[in-house]
Amino acid sequence: MSYFVFHGDEEVEITCEGFDGLPSDRQSKVIELLGEPIRRDEYCVCFKKGESEAVDSAVEILRIYYRNHSATVRRRSNEMQNSMGVYYPADIRSIYEIQQGKCYFSGEPISLERRDYAIDHLKPVNVCGSSWPENLALVTKEVNLEKRDRTKAQYLNMLTKKHGQEWKEQQKNGMQKSISKGE
């Protein structure tokens, strides 16, 4: 994906693909820095050129996002090559409904619209886990970062050590009991 930015004398142009590909919170930040777009056509979104510091900050938002986005695309490609199974958007919606719109591990609310969740492999791909829907759970991004490549059992043990046995019992009676997924 390209996010080419052109600095004209009076305008800053960002490709539509680059601007529209940003998550809404980052689009809002670019608009906060540069103001509302003054025009849009089929190729680019144009902003009135303001202070160079604001333009540099907006370009930095694009650069960081797409650098991280490229790494995510490469990781997902490797994941798909190294694992069996496939899932589709309908599978994600079904998992969301089964989990009642809550993180599999923490029980915190998640939103499909805001895309404030991560798709977690309960048994990670690097330990022969699959990408079939039965091995997937929706979790908060924070939980996904903390869990990393641990299995479901390893992560729950880590959480039990962190929060105590009482926490584990509460989890058994709550979310974990109502969602039965593969190990």
Question: What would you note in describing this structure?
Answer:
The chain has 183 residues and is of the alpha+beta class. It has two domains: 5-82, no CATH class; 89-178, His-Me finger endonuclease fold, CATH 3.40.1800. The chain has eight helices and six strands, in the order ββααββααββαααα. It has helices spanning 16-20, 24-34, 52-82, 89-98, 141-147, 152-163, 165-173, 175-178; strands at residues 5-7, 11-15, 39-40, 44-48, 117-121, 136-140. The chain has a four-stranded antiparallel sheet with strand order 1-2-4-3. Strands 5-6 form a two-stranded antiparallel ribbon. A hairpin with a 3-residue loop joins strand 3 and strand 4 (44-48). Helix 2 (24-34) packs antiparallel against helix 3 (52-82) and helix 6 (152-163) crosses helix 7. The longest helix has 31 residues, at 52-82. The radius of gyration is 20 Å and the shape is elongated. Mean pLDDT is 82; it is low at 176-183.
Topology overview:
Layout: E1 5-7, E2 11-15, H1 16-20, H2 24-34, E3 39-40, E4 44-48, H3 52-82, H4 89-98, E5 117-121, E6 136-140, H5 141-147, H6 152-163, H7 165-173, H8 175-178
Antiparallel strand pairs: 1-2, 2-4, 3-4, 5-6
Helix pairs in contact: 2-3, 6-7
